[in-house]
Amino acid sequence: MEAQAQGLLETEPLQGRDEDTVASADFSSMLSEEEREELKAELVQLEDEITTLRQVLSAKERHLVEIKQKLGMNLMNELKQNFSRSWHDMQTSTAYKKTHETLSHAGQKATAAFSNVGTAISKKFGDMRRK
């Protein structure tokens, strides 16, 4: 019996055709009339709540725009502030500091190396002139 039950229970996730089958299944015949009425009432209530929330959100967004206008904030100012904040955050990050130190050290070494090469070339030209 357990082996038969095992075969009926699939452990694989739903495939596209399985999802379509579930989505097109008519579960309404399994509901009593009372359950259907309760679900319809809940559906109407949820739709009303969603509509109310959308209206509240829209009103808050309008209020936000008004406040920003009164403060003289516009898109360009916000972009500048975001860029400045991001630049500052990047400069204060550990990775940036380590990279800056490494590149600075490498620059100093490169400068010293070029100086040494320049000195060596000058010395060679000087030696060549003397001969």
UniProtKB/TrEMBL annotation:
Region annotated Disordered sits at 1-21
Look up and give the organism this protein is from. Answer: Neovison vison (American mink)
Signal peptide (UniProt feature, chain positions): none
Q: Alphabetically list the UniProt keywords.
A: Coiled coil
InterPro entries, per the entry: TPD52
Kindly list any coiled-coil regions of this protein.
Answer: 29-63
Cellular component GO terms, alphabetically?
cytoplasm
Q: Which domain of life is it from?
A: Eukaryota
A Gene Ontology biological process annotation?
Answer: positive regulation of apoptotic signaling pathway
Q: Which family is annotated?
A: Belongs to the TPD52 family.
The name this protein goes by in its record? TPD52 like 1
Q: What is the lineage of its organism?
A: Eukaryota, Metazoa, Chordata, Craniata, Vertebrata
